[in-house]
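Readers outside the structure-tokenisation community will struggle with the description of the input data as it stands. I therefore recommend that a typical entry be quoted early in the introduction. An entry of this sort, consisting of the sequence and the corresponding backbone structure tokens, reads as follows:
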Amino acid sequence: MNKLVSTVFLFSFCFLNAVAQTGKVFDNLSLKSEILNMERKYAIYLPPDYETSERSYPVLYLLHGSGDDQSGWVQFGEVLHITDKAIKNGTSTAMIIVMPDANTGQRGYTNDVSGNWRYEDFFFEEFIPFIEGKYRIRTEKRYRAVAGLSMGGGGTFYFALHRPDLFSAACPLSASTGPLNRDEMKNYTQRRGMQDASEAKMNEWYKKYSVTEMVNNLPEEDLKAVRWFIDCGDDDFLFEGNALVHIALKKRNIPHEYRVRDGAHNWTYWRESLPEVLRFVSDGFHQH
């Protein structure tokens, strides 16, 4: 009987220990936005020891691409499996990962040219304060990072370039970098429904959301205030913008990691990128 009890106890201990080593994902949460006048959804990854500890954690804001929503990184990016594995093998520190929805009402992470749709303002003025007030998150800049793919890679650039005081690291993957030059801005405005905006408004928007324009003109101290990890496949249709951003950073002697791997604009590529993102941001979260 004692042997049976011991066996059951050992099995129960091993089972509970395995469960304890698994993080949790919630992919249909929401908050009310006064700025956007609607409910906004988000997903969140909580690390394995979140419920059993009292500590606060670093945070990574992980942005989805065009056509996806807050569940994209959960469903297709396998954020739970990949992050659990990275934490277990020691290549990532335990962190909270937050995935906002930018595919409701209007698609994208920017304010529109008219100022009627202010997603970026929502992100900084409502979303971050809500998340960091609700969960046990360390709110210092050094413990906050942002990453994303495609449209979310563009959002990563915009957020980190606009607010280098908030993010220690930024990891744009296969990023949409906005209009590459002023000539391209005309086609860009047609696709985004901005054709009726005044020349002055479009010029203002271009300066704010062309990544190459910002990298060429922002103060050097702002660019150096963020650790950059840029990753884009050699067969990705967005290769040009990412390469031009790399060249612009290189010309200004801004430290950054630039990766070109074999791959295209797809989830196979981004699932392979995520462990590197976790490693890169964790390196900044650690004390050296």
In short: Residues 2-20 form the longest helix (19 residues). Confidence is low (pLDDT under 50) at residues 4-19. The chain has one domain: 25-285.
